[in-house]
Structures are given as C-alpha cells and as structure tokens.
C-alpha cells in the first residue's frame, strides 16, 4: 500500500477530495472514490477531483469535451458514489483554487478542461473565482416526487441534467432525506433536483439533492440551473443564490452563464485509502 498525496477543498461548503495525478497513472475505481468520500472511515467529501494533464487523456475524451484539449489541466470529477459526472460548478472553482495554491498556474485568467469542454476561469480582486459556464439549455418541464408530494419545474442542462423547481413553502422546511423520484423518460441518467424560493428582488434561496451524492450544502451547476429557471427565457439577469453553505452570484445573458463565489483549500496530506 503506497501513500498518495491529497488535498481537501470546498466551495460554499460543497467539499471535495483533490488527487494530484498529472501523468494519468492513477486507476481510480468506484470503490476508491466511495472510500475517500466516506465521512466516517475516509477523508469525507461530496466528490473527488482528479488533477490530470489534459494531453495524457488523448482519445478517451468524449466529443463534448473536445474543447478541453486547449486547457493544460483537466478536472476528472467523480460523485461520492463513484459515478462519473459531466460537470461541477463548485468543483471547477475549487479545482482552480488548487491549481493556484500549488503553483500549477500563475495567471488570474486561464481555462480548465472538463467533460463539458473547456471552462474559462477569472480570479476576482476580492478572491472569488468566476467560471464561464457556457450556454444553459432549457429542455422542457418535468416533475419529481418528494416526501412532501410532487413538485414541477424546468428541465435544464448546464453540461449535466437538472430539474429546477420553484416552490411556495420555505426551502428550510423541506425533507430531502430520500432521493427524489424522477421520470426515467425525461432523465434516463438521473438528475440533480433544485428547490427554490424567490425571497427578494434578485435573490433566491435554494436546496439541492445531487445525483450520486445526496443532499449537499451547495451545487454550482444547480445554482446556475436555478437562476436560469427563475429568468424569463431570452432575458438577461443577475441573481444572488443562497444555499446552505453560503452564497454565489450568477450572471445570465445571451452569451451564457457566469458563476462567481468563494473557494478554499482547507487541508493537505497523505492517504493510503487508494
């Protein structure tokens, strides 16, 4: 058993185990990811971010990720259950913070490769990190079964699938202890489900149940999906979205969405869980 370096980071308390693997030598199994993310027997996290040079992935990149080839570093993101996810907005911010923290980038503007393509990063003067999330795609409407009953909302793709539902009751009152029941025809690969309230002009409160992770303190792509669902189609808007772990800002316009918020590295060490 060989110890491996790791770091721990979070973006609005959506937390991740970060594994540096620049040359793509690590064969990360579902069991590895589950062990690392276990909050009692492991390091604990909502997912794993593997830090790998994009060029070593070669032909394994799917067509949707081809623009990732222009980024030096690729975020290989896994949910806490070991499943592979296309995109993670908080994860990209934490990934960017890690690259800066260890000196793998030395600019306030750069790109990160993801399974949804290259994502532009800007480090703001206040320390927040802004990610260019690209275009947000509305895909119709659907519903989900919760403990409280059925909720209805907008099907939205932010590189990964979402159902964003506006509700009348405060989000703090929701029971999200069990997975939402989704229409398999609408979401054959599952989806993240967001529940939100409009609490003031330009301000939304949100909770989220993430596919493969359960309820999390925050979800970057879910924050963007919620802002898009709350914005009339074709209009521009800026939203503050408050989640259990803090607050992010989303700007929406014809060019796409930008997600801004904090990201921090909180620990570094060695693990023998892999």
From TrEMBL:
Its EC number is 5.1.1.7. It comes from the Bacteria. The keyword Isomerase applies. Keywords: Amino-acid biosynthesis, Cytoplasm, Isomerase, Lysine biosynthesis. GO terms for molecular function: diaminopimelate epimerase activity. The active site is at residues 88, 219. It is found in: Cytoplasm. The record marks 162, 210 as: Could be important to modulate the pK values of the two catalytic cysteine residues. It is an enzyme of class 5 (isomerase). Substrate binds at residues 14, 79, 89-90, 160, 192, 210-211, 220-221. Catalyzes the stereoinversion of LL-2,6-diaminopimelate (L,L-DAP) to meso-diaminopimelate (meso-DAP), a precursor of L-lysine and an essential component of the bacterial peptidoglycan. Belongs to the diaminopimelate epimerase family. This is Diaminopimelate epimerase. It comes from Nocardiopsis alba.
């Amino acid at each position: 058993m060989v110890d491996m370096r790791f770091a721990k980071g979070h973006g609005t308390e959506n937390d991740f185990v970060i594994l540096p693997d620049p040359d793509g030598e690590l064969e990360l199994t579902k069991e590895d990811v589950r062990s690392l993310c276990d909050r009692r027997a492991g390091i604990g996290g909502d997912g794993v971010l593997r830090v790998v040079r994009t060029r070593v992935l070669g032909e394994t990149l799917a067509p949707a990720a081809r623009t990732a080839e222009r980024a030096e570093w690729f975020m290989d993101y896994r949910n806490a259950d070991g499943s592979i996810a296309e995109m993670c907005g908080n994860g990209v911010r934490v990934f960017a913070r890690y690259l800066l923290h260890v000196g793998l980038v030395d600019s306030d503007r750069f790109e990160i490769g993801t399974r949804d393509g290259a994502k532009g990063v800007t480090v703001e003067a206040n320390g927040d990190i802004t990610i260019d999330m690209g275009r947000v795609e509305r895909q119709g409407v659907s519903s989900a079964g919760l403990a409280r009953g059925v909720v209805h909302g907008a099907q939205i793709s932010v590189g990964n699938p979402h159902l964003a539902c506006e509700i009348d009751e405060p989000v703090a009152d929701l029971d999200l202890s069990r997975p939402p029941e989704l229409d398999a025809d609408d979401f054959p690969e599952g989806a993240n489900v967001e529940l939100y309230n409009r609490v003031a002009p330009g301000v939304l409160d949100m909770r989220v149940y993430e596919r493969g992770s359960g309820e999390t303190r925050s979800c970057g792509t879910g924050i963007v999906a919620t802002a898009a669902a709350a914005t009339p189609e074709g209009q521009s808007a800026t939203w503050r979205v408050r989640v259990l772990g803090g607050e992010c800002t989303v700007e929406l316009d014809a060019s796409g969405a930008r997600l801004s918020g904090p990201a921090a590295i909180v620990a570094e060490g060695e693990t023998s869980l892999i």
